Amino acid sequence: MRTARIVGPQQRVDERDTPHPRMRRGELGQRLQRLRTTPSSDPFRRIVRANSATDRRNCLTWVLGNTADGAVNPKRVEVPDPAAMSSRIKEVARFFGADVVGIAPLDQAYVYSHRDGGSAARGEKDGEEVNLPHRFAICLGTAGDYNKYRANPSRISDAEYSVGSGLTCVVAFQLAAYIREMGYPAVAHDSGHNDVNPIPLAVMAGLGELGRNGLLINDEYGPGLHLFVVTTDLPLAVDHPVDIAVEDFCQQCKKCARLCPSRSIPFGDKVVYNGVEKWLVNVDSCYRLRAFQHDQCEVCLTCIVTCCYYKRDTWWHTLALRLVLSTPIPLRPAFVKPLLWLDDLIWGKEPHRHVKWLDYDSAYTPPIRPCKVPGCAVHSPGWKAGKGRGRVKQVVTQPK
Predict the structure, then answer these.
(1) Strand ranges (DSSP E) for the chain?
(2) Which domain holds residue 277?
(3) How crowded is residue 71: how many other Cβ atoms within 10 Å of its Cβ?
(4) Which of 89, 143, 245, 359 is 20 to 30 Å apart from 184, CA to CA?
(5) What is the number of domains present in the chain?
(6) How does pLDDT run across 196-238, given as a tens digit for each residue?
């Protein structure tokens, strides 16, 4: 994997050290902590995020995450051909609503060491050590609506992202139930119950490569996928990592880093973090941005919609990718540069679409509030409000 090479030993991550638990504990600022415990002003957000809801029972992801897994059918289906079963499971997942499906061996490096919180219905406890002996990870992805995403930053893109995440949760829940009815243990790892990190598993399953923005980049949907994982012992044939030239584009493009409103995406080279050589995103400043744009939206999708891979499935987009992939790796930069120039020319250096939907309007511009948290990169000195849509623009020189 060119975009994320494993160069040293990896330690399992404690889920309590991931961003959402840290936000809840106030480690990313009191303002963000208050937003996490205050019902959202937007009803779409309230029905898909339990912490934003007036009543958690109105949140489907919370209901599913706090529902005990069904029993495994004692009458097991025999699997003489794991490859045929893999094809069947992928077809079933697509039937339930998945846009992409891949299968990887369950690498324990990407299973959390301890849980944050736990589902009483599942008999889990806060801080409990995770023991997940399953052999395989079925990685699922569903794509958001292209036009609504391009309304970012707005309540329209926010609603699409939030509701889409909930729908993917349902797909994972149904697939896990289907496998249990076949006589094999299976667990859906969704936003209410998650023991695994989906992105590295999806890379191993061949769904895409890791981008400069820290997200999985798929050849058809770019970074615009909601990812969930179902782990199981059902005998399956695994897929393998792919090369879709993300390394070659991300080395030169840097559009996501240039337009990131919190300066969280690096311009520089990769670093080694937890045994993996990759571009390291500043997660803290990324999440702190939510506290200062909540009048407009709650999730920033700038690094998704600005990505040159995030385009409609058109013939010229497919042709460009095939052209690069058919070129020897040392010669790829010669093709990438003009393609990036065309991307800026056709879709714009700062992609945005003015969308009106229901009573939402993506042209709304709320005030920019400065961040006073010491060391916070969001709206720090050297930044000023840009024209239109409440974006921030840096006035200091960016490294090349």
Answers:
(1) 5-6, 100-105, 136-143, 186-189, 209-210, 216-217, 225-232, 271-273, 276-278, 356-357, 360-361, 383-385, 392-394
(2) 1-400
(3) 8
(4) 143
(5) 1
(6) 999 999 999 999 999 999 999 999 999 999 999 999 999 999 9
